[in-house]
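FW: tagging you since you asked about this chain on Friday. Here's the raw sequence from the shared folder, copied in full. Didn't touch anything.
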Amino acid sequence: MSANTTPSAADKSAKERKKNKSANSRQPQAGSTAKTKTKPKGGSGRFHRNHESQGPTLRATPRGGLISKATTLTLFFDRLRQPFRKDKDFSKKLYNILGFYPHNTEFYRVALTHSSAENRGGVKPLNNERLEFLGDAVLEMVVSDIVYKHFDRKREGFLTGTRSKIVQRATLNQLADKMGVMKLVRVSKQPTTQHNNIGGNAFEALVGAVYLDRGYDFCYRFVAKRVLGRYLNLDAVAQKEENFKSKLLEWSQKNKLKAEFVAKSDEKTHPGNSVFISVVYIEGVKTGEGKGYSKKESHQNAAKDALTKLRRDQRLHDSLFKAKEERTQMEAAEYAALPSPAGKQLLVMDGQQMDS
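HL: got it, structure written out here
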């Protein structure tokens, strides 16, 4: 009797039940959400993200960075609050200069108060000297940041020269006058000639006030949009030639001071590459020193160093004029005593000899 190879009805029924159970396990249960892959429009669909959930919206600032949507809202609410502020007049004047409203106006009142301001009620008000110190450092940092990014292929010497042209006292004095900063400065009614840098000092103090009140980004915004955006052309400033030696000699001649440049030495940085060192003496007093890859460059840097020291060091400034007085007193004698062969002295006066 042969084996029966035909599957029985029981075996067929068991296979069908197993197949149905496997299909049911792959179907989603009631109340659950089916996971389906969708291909986004315009893309491969391999890595699709919902960009609306990636944080606050950002927009570009003048320096090419990013400013948050929260900052934009802050500026908006500052404008809404302006009509209700107690110091709205002063705040509005600051807005015309800065381009944004201040939060703590007390910083700015101090920044715009010169040390010569009159006492009120027997109490001398705070002056802007400390804020000037802070603003000087912040302004130099901001300008360095802007210049470095704007001239991305220039060497260090070019960047340093461009920065110095912007932050130098003469430029800041002009900016303070053009931007209306001087109109807000509290100063004595009769400022002396020593106060000719009041505007530039107040400008630096104003930058210091912005830093304390709103932070570095707003300092950058102020310099980039208001200063360089309206009153200074960065490319034109960079191309402007500064002849420090000519300025120093002109000042010396005007004040009848003797100035001379002396080659100190030269240094070998690399084979065949020398660095020249020059020293400038005014009335015999060492006033400045500079290095350069040529004598001309070393003279320029020495003159720049001398001008910087003379602006900051009043003692050095006074010592030059004291040395001048001593020299002129020696040259003021109208006659000189000459020894006589016969033992007598001859006086030379106005080109004529006279017996003593």
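FW: The CA atoms of residues 16 and 22 lie 10 Å apart.
HL: agreed, and DSSP finds 13 helices and eight strands in the chain.
FW: great, closing this out.
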